[in-house]
């Protein structure tokens, strides 16, 4: 009679049937459960507890837990059931919904493996290393146990393939923030930013969720050969917004516009009649431009180069030559500086010749000379 009852009970279950069970005992390699509506015990092999590798069954379940299970094998005195498959069926439905809706959700990183991260979502989700952050990460060991936001970027249930991305979440957030910042930013604003990247042509500065370019010509009032000579990554800087291109989402910034210019207080630094040392930067037909302070050039007009008459400035000066100059006039507003070299040079003796009468004429009066001439005419 009992044997007949057991046979009846066993025949009522088939593979892939969904059942409910309560954990009654946890062993080293399996978990025992009582199956609702059955006198047969249910056995969950440790490999069927989770989509992830499990060392100890007690890490996944505890006595008294009520579980949804799937029958994987019907034996004479027990049912082999799977929590993993039951979880997976529910999980795939949920993952499909999230994938179709483009949902962002939080999940715990269960493991760090070669090539990326593993997340248990009822099914095994994999996060390739390139999709963890929007920048390079050398060591992912600190990520284990962290709760991170993800978005599903690839789903194939038949291949049991579920690819997640945290990078996609970051990029979406940055894009939204960028649009907001672009709406609120305008030319002329002075902002604080952080240098993010340095290139040969300038530096990209983060001004609150969006990067703007400080061209090399806008890094300093002084000549800059390499941007890295002036700024470094992570440095906080003040910048002035030069222009905003909403269509192309480009922002032009300037650091030098926030700093005192080379002409600031020039009337004090280069007062009239002061003597300065400078370097000849450019020679033109009408004179030479001499740099007396970084970024400050004054003109030495050709008439102020030498006491001697010269045809071209090249006769006396050459580019790169160091000279002393005297300030003749200075105008900070118009950024104009008039200089002189000849004012600091002594006049040549050749320019001050004392003309004398010939020796034989000395001692004669002018009238006498005229009288002799008149006699000769008679």
Number of contiguous helices: 5
The string of secondary-structure elements, in order, is: HEEEEEHEEEEEHEEEEEHEEEEEH
Q: Bin the strand percentage.
A: 35-45%
What is the overall shape? rod-shaped
CATH topology of the largest domain: OB fold (Dihydrolipoamide Acetyltransferase, E2P)
Main beta sheet strand tally, sense and closure? 5 strands, mixed, barrel
Helical proportion, percent range: 10-25%
Q: Please tell me the overall pLDDT.
A: 87
- CATH class group of the largest domain: Mainly Beta
Low-confidence stretches: 1-11, 349-357, 359-370
Overall number of strands: 20
CA gyration radius, whole angstroms: 45 Å
The CATH architecture of the largest domain can be given as Beta Barrel
CATH superfamily of the largest domain: Nucleic acid-binding proteins
Number of domains: 4
Structural class of the helix and strand makeup? alpha+beta
Strand order of the largest sheet: 1-2-3-5-4
Distance from first to last alpha carbon = 184 Å
Write structural notes for this entry.
The chain has 378 residues and is an alpha+beta fold. It folds into 4 domains: 20-100, Nucleic acid-binding proteins (OB fold (Dihydrolipoamide Acetyltransferase, E2P)); 102-170, OB fold (Dihydrolipoamide Acetyltransferase, E2P); 185-258, OB fold (Dihydrolipoamide Acetyltransferase, E2P), CATH 2.40.50; 266-349, OB fold (Dihydrolipoamide Acetyltransferase, E2P), CATH 2.40.50. The protein is 17% helix and 38% strand. The chain is built from 5 helices and 20 strands. The strands form 4 sheets. The chain has a 5-stranded mixed barrel with strand order 1-2-3-5-4. It has a 5-stranded antiparallel beta sheet with strand order 8-7-6-9-10. It is rod-shaped, with a radius of gyration of 45 Å. The termini are far apart.
């Amino acid at each position: 009679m009992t044997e007949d009852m057991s046979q009846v009970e066993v025949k009522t279950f088939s593979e892939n049937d969904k059942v409910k069970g309560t954990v009654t005992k946890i062993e080293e390699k399996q978990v025992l459960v009582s199956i609702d509506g059955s006198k047969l015990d249910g056995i969950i092999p440790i490999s069927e507890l989770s989509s992830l590798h499990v060392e100890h069954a007690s890490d996944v379940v505890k006595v008294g837990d009520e579980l949804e299970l799937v029958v994987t094998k019907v034996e004479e005195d027990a049912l082999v059931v799977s929590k993993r498959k039951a979880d997976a069926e529910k999980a795939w439905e949920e993952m499909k919904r999230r994938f179709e809706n483009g949902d962002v959700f939080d999940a715990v990183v269960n493991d760090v493996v070669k090539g990326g991260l593993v997340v248990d979502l009822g099914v095994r989700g994999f996060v390739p290393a390139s999709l963890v952050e929007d920048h390079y990460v050398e060591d992912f060991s600190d990520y284990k146990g962290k709760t991170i936001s993800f978005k599903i970027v690839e789903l194939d249930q038949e291949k049991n393939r579920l690819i997640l991305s945290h990078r996609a979440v970051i990029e979406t957030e940055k894009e939204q923030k960028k649009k907001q910042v672009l709406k609120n930013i305008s030319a002329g604003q002075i902002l604080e930013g952080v240098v993010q990247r340095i290139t040969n042509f300038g530096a990209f500065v983060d001004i609150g969720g969006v990067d703007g370019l400080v061209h090399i010509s806008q890094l300093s009032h002084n000549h800059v050969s390499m941007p890295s000579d002036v700024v470094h990554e992570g440095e906080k800087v003040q910048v002035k917004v030069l222009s905003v291109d909403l269509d192309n989402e480009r922002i032009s910034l300037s650091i030098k516009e926030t700093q005192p210019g080379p002409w600031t207080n020039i009337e004090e630094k280069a007062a009239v009649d002061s003597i300065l040392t400078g370097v000849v930067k450019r020679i033109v037909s009408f004179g030479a431009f001499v740099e007396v302070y970084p970024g400050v050039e004054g003109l030495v007009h050709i008439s102020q180069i030498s006491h001697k008459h010269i045809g071209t400035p090249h006769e006396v000066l050459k580019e790169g030559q160091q000279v002393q100059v005297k300030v003749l006039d200075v105008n900070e507003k118009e950024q104009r500086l008039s200089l002189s070299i000849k004012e600091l040079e002594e006049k040549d003796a050749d320019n001050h010749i004392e003309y004398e009468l010939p020796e034989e004429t000395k001692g004669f009066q002018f009238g006498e000379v005229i009288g002799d001439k008149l006699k000769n005419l008679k």
